[in-house]
Amino acid sequence: MVLENKLRKLYYWLPPSFRLLARKLFYLPKDIFRDKKILQPPEGLIYTGRGDFIKVGKYWKERFIKDGFMMPEHNVLDIGSGIGRMALPLTTYLSTGKYEGFDAVYQGVKWCKENIQSQYPHFNFQYVDLSNDLYKAKGIDPSTYSFNYEDKYFDFIFAISVFTHMIDSELENYLRQSARVIKENGILFATFFILSDDYKPDNQRFNFPYDYGHYRLMDKVVESANVAYRFDYLQRLFIQFGFTIERYEKGYWLENIPQNNNDFQDLLIVRKN
């Protein structure tokens, strides 16, 4: 795990173009012989998350339906839509509802437009040029960005492995924007790294050594690499923006949480008042 943490720091240091090139070269033999009839991006283009791309997407779809009560007629917002990991399984579920997703990585949005939106017109993807030190991008400040959607439009919003890469001013704005565009009684499904009172900075699975009071950073140079928040701070934010926490599940990034039947990141399911 110590070696993994060191390799992760090296990865964050590399320019995004080099990361993508290295991944393309590594997966080139597999991508050449992949079944192109299956709708999924080449392995060399995938830049989001860990685990099997298709299985992870299906897993979250099932969680959205079972624990978040997502319905086929819901209007759904995917914050940080990536390269379609969550969108793909939802194409077989959302019937009369609409899907909207936005992301700060152009290659991911381009692939989704060409391969998903072209076949499913009720799915729409937007590229937003946002500032992000993880992707070395200098665009719109996420702490001031206004979601390009109408007020009270969405029944269901999810942000999987998104708020784990945002500092406090950015997180606060995204929750403010989510509160604006979600309907009353709508559900927000989001993952975090949540600091409990017994958190130890020398956690070997995932370490956040840099303390800023209500949050901690994994890397003080690349701030958005990974960010962890105190639970009481998140509670205050959700209350401030009119949400009620309905479920809190701890992830196995913490050493005292078993991997079986748990997600790596912590999960919060909240409802708009």
Low-confidence stretches: none
On the 0 to 100 scale, the average pLDDT is: 87
Number of domains: 1
How would you classify the helix and strand content by structural class?
alpha/beta
> What is the CA-CA span between the terminal residues?
41 Å
Q: Could you tell me the number of beta strands?
A: 11
The CATH homologous superfamily is termed: Vaccinia Virus protein VP39
Please describe the biggest sheet, giving its number of strands, its sense, and whether it closes into a barrel: 7 strands, mixed
Percent in strands: 15-25%
The order of strands across the largest sheet is 3-2-1-4-5-11-10
Corresponding CATH architecture: 3-Layer(aba) Sandwich
Q: Tell me the radius of gyration.
A: 18 Å
Q: Give the fraction of residues assigned to helices.
A: 25-40%
The top level CATH class name: Alpha Beta
Summary tags:
273 residues, alpha/beta, Rossmann fold, seven-stranded mixed beta sheet, four-stranded mixed beta sheet, 7 helices
If you had to describe this structure to a student in words, what would you say it looks like?
The protein is of the alpha/beta class and 273 residues long. The protein has a single domain, classed as Vaccinia Virus protein VP39 (Rossmann fold, 3-Layer(aba) Sandwich), CATH 3.40.50. It has seven helices and eleven strands. It has helices at 2-13, 16-32, 53-68, 87-90, 106-117, 168-181, 231-240; strands at residues 76-79, 99-103, 123-127, 154-159, 182-192, 194-195, 210-211, 215-217, 227-230, 243-249, 266-272. The chain has a seven-stranded mixed sheet, with helices on both faces. A four-stranded mixed sheet has the order 6-9-8-7. The protein is globular and about 50 Å long. The N and C termini lie far apart (41 Å). The model has no long low-confidence stretch (mean pLDDT 87).
